[in-house]
Specification:
The protein is built from 10 helices and 12 strands. The protein has 303 residues and is an alpha/beta fold. The termini are close together. Bound molecules: iron/sulfur cluster.
Length: 303
C-alpha cells in the first residue's frame, strides 16, 4: 500500500504552541493545580492524554474557586481582559497561550475601538475568540472615553439589519468611521461578500481581514490529495469544526472517505486499497497521525 499525507495537515501553529505550553506548565508545576480555561483543543485523544497528566479543565464560573499557586492556561483563541484579571486576582499564575494571530486581532479591534470606529465583526456568536476580541475593544473604548459599537455579523442579512439599526439611531453618517474585521476562522467567501455589501452602503468603510491561512491551507492540500488516491482518511475530533469541513470535502471529491478519531476506527475496506491519502484537522496530534499510518501499513500487509 502507498500512503500519501496531505502537504499540510494536523496541528496549526497556534494549537501546537498551546499544547507545548500546557506540557511545559505540567512539567514545571510546583504544587498547585494546572488548569486550562475550557478544553484545550477539540480532540478527545489529545485531551485524554493531557488529563492523564492531571491537566484539569476549568470553566469561567469556577474561577472563584482557584487557589494561590494554581496555574491557568489561556487557550489559543484567547479571553477578554477581565477574565485574565479575575484569574490573577485569585493569585493563580497565568500562562497565556493565545495564538499570536488572535492577539493581533485583539489589538486591532482595541485600536479601532479607541478611535471611535463602528466595528462590524464577521464571526460566530459566542465563539471564545469573538468574546475575547470584543472584551479588548470594550476596554479600549472605555479607556478612551468612546462608546463602543461592535456589531457581530455572520452573513449579508445580519449586516443589512445592523446597518438599518444604526441608521434608525442616527449613528451612521458620511463622517462615521466604519471598519469591517473578522474572526480568524471565518469563511473567506462570506467575508468577501460582506465586504462588497458594506462598501455598497458605506463606500469609505475600511476593511481588515484576520482570516488565518491555517483555515484554508488544509482544505487546499486535501483537494490536490484527493486526485492522487483511492480513498482518504480524515483524522480528528468529531466535534472539531475544521475536521468536519475536511471530511465534507473528502467525501465530495473522493470515492472513499472516512472520519476517524483513532487508528482502531479505520474501516477494513481501506486495508485493501492501493493508495490511501491521509489528512488531519488542526487539533490532531502528530502521534495519532503516525499511529493511523502504522496501522494501515501493518493491516494492509496482512490482508
Ligand atoms: Fe492561530 Fe490560525 Fe491556529 Fe487559530 S487556526 S490557533 S489563528 S494558527
Amino acid at each position: 500500500m502507498k500512503i500519501i499525507r496531505a502537504k499540510i495537515l494536523g496541528f496549526c501553529a497556534g494549537v501546537r504552541r498551546a499544547v507545548n505550553a500546557a506540557e511545559k506548565a505540567l512539567s514545571e508545576n510546583a504544587g498547585g493545580q494546572v488548569y486550562t480555561l475550557g478544553p484545550l483543543i477539540h480532540n478527545p485523544v489529545a485531551l485524554e492524554e493531557l488529563s492523564k497528566r492531571n491537566l484539569k479543565i476549568l470553566s469561567e464560573t469556577d474561577i472563584a474557586r482557584l487557589r494561590e499557586g494554581d496555574t491557568v492556561l489561556i487557550r489559543a483563541h484567547g479571553v477578554p481582559p477581565e477574565t485574565e484579571h479575575a484569574i490573577r486576582e485569585k493569585g493563580a499564575n497565568v500562562v497565556n497561550a493565545t495564538c499570536p494571530l488572535v492577539t493581533k486581532s485583539q489589538k486591532t479591534a482595541a485600536d479601532y475601538a479607541a478611535k471611535g470606529y463602528i466595528i462590524f465583526f464577521a464571526g460566530d456568536k459566542n465563539h471564545g475568540e469573538v468574546v475575547g476580541i470584543e472584551g479588548y475593544a470594550k476596554k479600549a473604548a472605555s479607556e478612551a472615553g468612546k462608546n463602543l459599537h461592535f456589531l457581530l455579523i455572520k452573513d449579508a442579512e445580519e449586516l443589512k439589519s445592523a446597518l438599518s439599526e444604526l441608521s434608525e439611531k442616527n449613528l451612521l453618517s458620511p463622517s462615521s468611521k466604519v471598519i469591517l474585521l473578522s474572526q480568524t476562522t471565518f469563511s473567506i467567501k462570506i467575508f468577501e461578500l460582506l465586504k462588497t455589501e458594506l462598501k455598497k452602503a458605506v463606500p469609505h468603510a475600511e476593511v481588515v481581514s484576520s482570516i488565518c491561512p491555517a483555515t484554508y491551507e488544509r482544505q487546499d492540500s486535501l483537494v490536490s490529495l484527493c486526485a492522487e488516491v483511492d480513498g482518504v482518511i480524515v483524522i480528528g475530533g468529531r466535534t472539531s469544526a475544521n475536521t468536519n469541513r475536511l471530511f465534507v470535502t473528502a467525501n465530495s471529491l473522493c470515492k472513499k472517505a472516512v472520519l476517524i478519531e483513532k487508528p482502531e476506527e479505520i474501516p477494513a475496506v481501506f486495508f485493501s486499497l492501493q493508495t490511501v491519502g491521509i489528512t488531519a484537522g488542526a487539533s490532531t496530534p502528530d502521534s495519532t497521525i503516525q499511529e493511523v499510518e502504522e496501522r494501515l501499513l501493518h493491516e494492509s500487509e496482512h490482508s
